[in-house]
Amino acid sequence: MSADLHQIWVYLSANPLAGLTLTLVAYQIGVWVFEKLGRRPVLNPVLIAVILIAGTLGLSGIDYRTYFDGAQFVHFLLGPATVALAVPLYNQFQEVRRSALALVVALLVGSAASALSAVALVWICGGTKVTILSMAPKSVTSPIAMGVSEQIGGLPSLTAVFVIITGIVAASLGTWVLNLVRVKDWRARGFGMGVAAHGIGTARALQVNEVAGAFAGLGMGLNGLATALLLPTLYHLIWG
Amino acid sequence: MLGTLTLLLLCQLAGELAARLLHLPVPGPVLGMLLLFAGLLLRGGVPAAIQDTAGGLLRHLSLLFVPAGVGVMVHVTRLETEALPIVVALFGSTLFGIAVTAKLMAFLLSRSEPRLEEEPAAGNSAKGDRT
């Protein structure tokens, strides 16, 4: 009997089904906890899911690569999801055209402020070059950030971790910062969250206010584009 | 749904091919997004099927971050040895980025709002008569 169980365990732990199921179950638990405990920004479903999965893998001794063999089916959907961002971008096109100039200026300055302050802070505090390069694109949605990271010589998987922590920081403390600098315009508040903290910031802005959510989605899309276009170019100009 | 998924994958594939063939410094999915955006502009609207499938996919966008997020396991050593720069940079730059973007945007909007009608976005006025 126990030999049978052992055989089944060996089979399942090396099978994509286990990693895939674990991902979805952990995320569902994350969403459930988030909803039950009053949608507190700190209890981000992604954060909860990551902790649950990493804990499960650690306890059962399954390594990340084996887990990822299954979870890659979820991960793969980031590509099509990035393409799908064209739809909200198109839906908000009228609004974008109305405030085009303010959007473009705030986008370029905000995008540069996020990336350069991140790079500068790692450098000042004595981080390594790989960490600096992996940190640079962390404000944009992870498929783009990982692509850019790979192109400039960072570690895409490390960048993905930074991207997610960035989102969680913004979702937890963004409202506080926006109140601190006394920005009341919902368009501006949302746009700031989207530009600096991609999809997780956008999800948070949507919870607070619909207009903020729309502009956050826009900020996420535009900064994804700006970072993808400008950061590799900038990197090649500086480091050659 | 199947049609939209096929369209999304085709856009992504075209984007990947263009990025590699033309040696563009842009990830393939981003080019795919631009391609789909251009297609929607040409068509002058979003078909209901695309609206639904794209909405469904983006509603669960944060789920898609989970597998990459678990990658934190692989980087535990680096995160420990470089904990200070990483924590300072992530908190500092994220909150700084939000503040700068939002403050500047609010300032520019408040300046441009009173004379909104006088300043149509350059080059876009010709498309208005299609819709």
TrEMBL record, chain A:
Keywords in alphabetical order: Membrane, Transmembrane, Transmembrane helix
Domain of life: Bacteria
Keyword Transmembrane: yes
Species of provenance: Azospirillum oryzae
Alphabetical list of Pfam families matching this protein: LrgB (PF04172)
Membrane-traversing stretches: 12-34, 46-67, 73-93, 100-124, 158-181, 214-238
InterPro entries in UniProt: CidB/LrgB
Localisation per UniProt entry: Membrane
Protein name in the entry: TIGR00659 family protein
One Gene Ontology term, aspect cellular component: membrane
Topology versus the membrane: Multi-pass membrane protein
TrEMBL record, chain B:
Transmembrane segments: 28-50, 57-77, 83-109
Domain of life: Bacteria
UniProt keyword list: Cell membrane, Hydrolase, Membrane, Transmembrane, Transmembrane helix
Record GO terms (molecular function): hydrolase activity
Cellular component per GO, a single term: plasma membrane
Record localization: Cell membrane
Membrane topology: Multi-pass membrane protein
PANTHER family: HOLIN-LIKE PROTEIN CIDA, HOLIN-LIKE PROTEIN CIDA-RELATED
Name of this chain's protein: Putative effector of murein hydrolase LrgA, UPF0299 family
